[in-house]
Design brief:
2 helices; 43 strands; 5 domains; five-stranded mixed beta sheet; Immunoglobulin-like; mainly beta
Length: 547
């Protein structure tokens, strides 16, 4: 008789073994982990009908890719030129993009479908850049082109991801709400090329949109623009049509931002730099008494501190050169509370004080009183009393501590609570600042002999750092010497502004007026300062480049 019990246990063990093998086998089959990140956009495998088809009469175009993709911002990115009243419909089918043409096509006309950045892969959103499809309803395809570079008028750097477009002169609608249909974007080297163009007269623009834009419509408030004043007459291929972008000054004054801060101060931001700004509280008039107003260096931002915050609403008039530009209103709730922290900032950099600067304290609120008895200065842990605490004669946010600082000494300045009092009886908390005095031998001087091309013209020389931030500027109109003195050792360069109107600043351009920004020339000479070294060199300024 068969041993049924033994067979049962053998079957049970076999089932358990099989389950275990399946479990561990399945567990070992998984998606690969890590590996290089996908940086390649989808690749085109096939276009039906083929790109550059002549005598085109199809109603649908199919573009096949090697991977799955998404259509992003179709209404911003996709366009057809010439325009159609009823635009084509885009649909994705697996790895295929289907474009259905809804409107009728003109005879003997070259059409260009621009996809911009609309097509990107699913996983990493890698964009197929400058994707286009061209066909002609006649026997010939428009084959003219315009090419060049786009750079920044201020920095001279080549601009990438900038939209370059042309508009027929009879439809020059830069300030309208319609997107251009003939466009391309610059590559990483600032190059662009517009292809498959027909003969004609065009205006050309380069549009650098602010973050969050992308609609290819010029927003004067936020975007940068470049253009050629003269009309392009396109009869053959054009190369070296170079454009420079710039930020226009706003033609009409406007308050960009206004708010009542959590500390009770009022912040105003303008779209223009004011020349002789003034702020007045019109209602209630009593609140205007004793107010504090602080403008930034560009006079395009202002902060107001009011001693009386019991008002329900207030109106502030913004004036420039005696003229009221705008009046803005603020409201507050009676239960509003404010938080104030009187912090102390200084001009110590990397733990070192510049030997050619005063030790400067900066506060976030107007300081109304200071008590030097609550300040302790230690030099190498030894208390010193022969320091002075000085208030800035103009800026109510600054104080200075003067002392015969010495190198190779460590300074600790202890500010006890209440050393400084600001409006609304706001006081600082205990804080200690530590620094050493940087040695003068870490600084250098450059004597620059300048030769100008035309003594009837004005020039501005700006010393800039490696990031092209201006450090110091000089205005002049004749040959002479410029001294760049007592600055930290490091790399410096020079740029020349051809100051056409002699106002001492760089003036930007204006599209409607057809004016370009004032020209800038960057010297290729390295004007670095060496530690504890006086250096001499010369520079010959070339004539300004032509448009």
């Amino acid at each position: 008789m068969p041993n049924l019990k033994a067979q049962y246990f053998n079957l049970k063990n076999l089932a358990m073994l099989t389950a275990s093998l399946l479990f561990f086998g399945c567990a070992s089959i998984q998606s690969p982990q890590g590996g290089p990140k996908d940086t390649e956009p989808p690749k085109i495998l096939k276009m039906t009908p083929e790109n550059l088809t002549r005598n085109f009469n199809a109603k649908k175009i199919v573009i096949e890719f090697d991977e799955y993709f998404n259509i992003k911002d179709e209404f911003k990115e996709f366009s057809i030129s010439p325009d159609q009243e009823t635009p084509p419909i885009l649909k994705k089918r697996q790895k295929r993009l289907e474009i259905t043409i809804q409107d009728s096509l003109e005879k003997n006309t070259t059409y260009t479908l621009n996809f911009g950045k609309a097509i990107a892969d699913v996983n990493e959103s890698n964009v197929v850049k400058n994707l286009s499809y061209v066909f002609s309803t006649g026997p010939e395809i428009d084959s003219l082109s315009i090419a060049g570079k786009v750079s920044s008028s201020l920095t001279g750097e080549l601009e990438k991801e900038v939209t370059v477009f042309i508009l027929p002169v009879e439809r020059d609608t830069l300030f309208g709400k319609k997107r251009p249909s003939i466009y391309t974007t610059t590559d990483s080297a600032g190059n662009y090329k517009l292809n498959n163009l027909r003969e004609g007269k065009y205006k050309i623009y380069a549009l650098k949109e602010n973050t969050g834009g992308g609609d290819k419509i010029y927003q004067q408030i936020s975007d940068e623009i470049g253009f050629l004043k003269d009309t392009i007459v396109l009869k053959g291929n054009l190369d070296n049509i170079n454009l420079q972008t710039f930020k226009e000054l706003a033609p009409t004054f406007r308050v960009m931002d206004r708010k009542l801060n959590s500390d009770g101060s009022i912040l105003l931001t303008f779209n223009q730099q004011l020349k002789q700004p003034k702020l007045t509280v019109m209602e209630p008039t009593a609140v205007d008494v004793g107010k504090y107003v602080h403008f930034n260096k560009r006079n395009d931002t202002a902060r107001i501190w009011l001693n009386d915050l019991t008002f329900d609403s207030a109106k502030v008039a913004i004036q420039d050169e005696g003229k009221v530009l705008e009046t803005v209103a603020f409201t507050r709730a009676k239960r509003d509370t404010y938080q104030r922290d009187l912090t102390i900032s200084d001009n110590v950099n990397g733990g070192k004080l510049n030997p050619y600067q005063r030790y400067t304290l900066t506060f976030p609120f107007p300081v109304t009183a200071a008590d030097a008895s609550k300040i302790v200065l230690l030099e190498d842990s030894v208390k010193r009393t022969n320091f002075q605490l000085l208030k800035d004669s103009v800026d109510f946010l600054k104080y200075y501590v003067t002392y015969p600082w010495r190198t190779k000494r460590t300074y600790d300045i202890k500010f006890a609570a209440g050393a400084f009092t600001a409006i609304f009886n706001t006081k600082n908390k205990d804080v200690t600042k530590r620094f050493t005095l940087d040695g003068t031998d870490n600084y250098g001087t450059l004597l620059l002999k300048v030769n100008v091309p035309d003594t009837s013209k004005n020039y501005i020389l700006e010393f800039i750092d490696e990031k092209k931030n201006p450090i110091q500027s000089f205005s002049f109109n004749k040959n002479g010497n410029i001294v760049f003195s007592k600055y930290p050792a490091g790399k410096y360069f020079a740029r020349i502004i051809y100051d056409e109107n002699g106002n001492g600043i760089w003036d930007t351009g204006n599209v409607k007026a057809g004016t370009q920004p004032e020209k800038i020339w960057y010297s290729t000479d390295d004007m670095s300062l060496k530690a504890n070294w006086d250096r001499e060199m010369s520079i010959t300024i070339p004539p300004p480049p032509k448009d």
